[in-house]
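Priority: medium. Attachment 1 of 2:
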């Protein structure tokens, strides 16, 4: 007791949440700087409420962003190489302490091995710099206030008025549309603040000759840079602000791959490499004799800022007598073809799916998304005779580009454990159910398409799906028998621990500008293993540990070959244009080396050693010869 105040009182987690909610309410009601918006959740669930900055606050932050970043600093690039991570896990920033293995959703993590440390330290040594063409392009769009190239518009979208005296179904449909617009506006407010941070950071570091990024890993050994506004693993706007600090002469092959990179960035990435290079030639030809800064076509690209910087680099090359003599700083990226499915197809030796994700050599790249989309179209055509929901989808699905977009996210997330319900949510939240013909609810339309995609996947992805099912079944047996978290050694030696515990849910009533609402808080207060979550998580986590090992193997092999400039985003690897041929060879060889070891068999053996009993037999494998990957032209493309 001191001056009538008792110190040392420990608040329970629930009381802390109550206090936090009360303080939040005081700020919201007392300042008027935040608005409460609702965001739709999955079918049958009530909308969630969240606080978003008001227009007044967003405008103020736009004016004060440079001061704000000093009051509440974000992680930033470094102007000197980061500290090397050592055995005691001290590294990265000089003045900030951070763990080498980060974990947000699991109780504990495993151990790093010397190979992981070496790979991360090698990546930390890569010097980058701000791309001036990208910064100039972003500042022009931002100052105009228009929405383009991944940058948000200056003003929020209008919300339609609620219809009066309408049928309940019409009201429900309006409610869903209004909630979506509110959610999009709330996201746009966040996007504007993010864009301001990116531009502010790029301006801050544009005059430095080089910047570096500290890296850490997660519990699966995936490598991540510090979460700075601009960073090598950011979106196209963030990542597009960066290029290698050291330049390398293009040479003839580098000039070729720079053209392919431009085509890829514009979205022309399903053709052969030669056709992509020809596409870039046609694109750049009329610009060579003019001013590249007058060209706005890059804004319509699939990755606009990557397209801008590639086009500008090509333009510079063609100002020389010999374009091959141009010294390029561009990071030319080669992307895996649905990389999670590549690893699952390799483990299941799945020839059909493996061919579509480019594990075999082809004259043109395979397209697993189109394969599934075509199967869905056949299902829609069959169902539309008797099902009006299918008839509503037909107009969109008969367009090849549109149907591929409809199925892409569901196919992409299948190797990472997406459920049918999750797929339905994706379709609705991504807006694919908007403006379809007929008077059906968007929920019903999304539900139909989710089922159709699941059915198509089942017919096209047999051995890979069997691997996923086996991993889930084996993990359930292991966790139930031992009461211990899943633990395995990844191919390069990293000890991964997946330790999910059950969460305790506290319900708290609070008062908001819209009235009394109940808020749920989840606390990891239990030490009881969450078997269901562990089983659902084992497929994505195991696959991520394999793709992490692959990227580290590529980093270290390139280092041995004297190639140090590398940017990796899990399933997308970038080097100088002149080094792409070597990158392709190394990517394929290291993938084969990992899957020759049969990581699934190694996982089973490790579990059985700890468990002391036999797990179910591994599923039968297909007829894919993993050695074919060595000649797979479009494996990463």
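Attachment 2 of 2:
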């Amino acid at each position: 007791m001191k001056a009538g105040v008792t110190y040392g009182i420990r608040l329970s987690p629930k009381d802390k949440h109550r206090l936090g909610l009360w303080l939040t309410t005081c700020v919201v009601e007392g300042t008027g700087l935040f608005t409460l918006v609702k965001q739709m959740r999955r079918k049958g669930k009530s909308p969630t409420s969240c606080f978003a900055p008001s227009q007044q606050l967003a405008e103020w932050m736009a004016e004060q962003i440079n001061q704000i970043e000093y009051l509440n600093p974000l992680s930033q690039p470094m102007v000197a190489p980061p500290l090397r991570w050592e055995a005691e896990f001290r590294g990265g920033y000089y003045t900030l302490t951070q763990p080498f293995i980060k974990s947000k959703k699991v109780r504990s993590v495993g151990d790093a091995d010397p190979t992981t440390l070496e790979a991360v330290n090698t990546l930390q040594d890569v010097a980058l710099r701000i791309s001036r063409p990208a910064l100039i392009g972003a500042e022009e769009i931002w100052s105009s206030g228009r929405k383009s190239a991944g940058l948000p518009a200056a003003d929020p979208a209008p919300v339609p008025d609620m219809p009066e005296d309408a049928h309940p179904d019409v009201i429900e449909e309006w409610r869903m549309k209004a909630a979506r617009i509110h959610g999009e506006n709330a996201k746009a407010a966040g996007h504007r603040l993010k864009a301001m941070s990116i531009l502010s950071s790029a301006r801050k570091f544009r005059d430095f000759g080089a910047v570096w990024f500290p890296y850490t890993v997660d519990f699966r050994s995936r490598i991540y840079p510090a979460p700075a506004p601009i960073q090598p693993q950011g979106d196209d706007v963030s990542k597009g602000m960066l290029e290698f600090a050291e330049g390398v002469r293009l040479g003839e092959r580098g000039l070729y791959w720079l053209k392919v990179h431009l085509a890829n960035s514009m979205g022309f990435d399903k053709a052969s490499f030669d056709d992509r290079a020809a596409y870039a030639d046609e694109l750049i030809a009329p610009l060579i004799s003019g001013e590249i800064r007058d060209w706005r076509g890059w804004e319509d690209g699939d990755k606009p800022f990557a397209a801008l910087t590639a086009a500008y680099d090509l333009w510079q090359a063609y100002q020389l007598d010999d374009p091959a003599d141009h010294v390029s700083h561009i990071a030319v990226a080669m992307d895996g073809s649905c990389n999670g499915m590549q690893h699952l197809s390799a483990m299941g030796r799945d020839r059909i799916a493996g061919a579509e994700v480019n594990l075999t050599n082809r004259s043109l790249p395979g397209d697993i998304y189109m394969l599934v989309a075509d199967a869905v179209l056949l299902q829609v055509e069959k169902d539309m005779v008797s099902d009006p929901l299918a008839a509503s989808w037909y107009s969109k699905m008969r367009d090849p580009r549109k149907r591929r977009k409809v199925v892409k996210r569901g196919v992409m997330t299948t190797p990472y454990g997406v459920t049918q319900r999750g797929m339905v949510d994706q379709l609705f939240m991504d807006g694919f159910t908007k403006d379809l013909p007929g008077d059906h609810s968007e929920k019903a339309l999304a539900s139909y398409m989710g089922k159709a995609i699941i059915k198509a996947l089942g017919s096209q992805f047999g051995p890979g799906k069997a691997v996923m099912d086996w991993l889930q079944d084996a993990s359930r047996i292991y966790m139930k028998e031992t009461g211990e978290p899943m633990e395995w050694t990844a191919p390069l030696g990293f000890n991964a621990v997946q330790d999910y515990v059950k969460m305790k849910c506290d319900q708290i009533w609070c008062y908001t500008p819209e009235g009394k609402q109940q808020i749920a808080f989840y606390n990891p207060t239990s030490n009881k293993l969450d078997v269901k979550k562990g089983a659902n998580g084992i497929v994505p986590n195991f696959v991520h540990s394999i793709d992490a090992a692959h990227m580290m193997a590529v980093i270290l092999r390139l280092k041995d070959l004297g190639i140090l400039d590398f940017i990796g985003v899990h399933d997308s690897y970038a080097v100088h244009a002149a080094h792409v041929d070597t990158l392709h060879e190394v990517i394929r060889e290291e993938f084969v080396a990992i899957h020759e070891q049969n990581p699934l068999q190694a996982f089973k053996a490790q579990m059985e050693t700890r468990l002391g009993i036999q797990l179910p037999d591994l599923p039968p494998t297909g007829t894919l010869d993993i050695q074919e990957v060595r000649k797979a032209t479009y494996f990463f493309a």
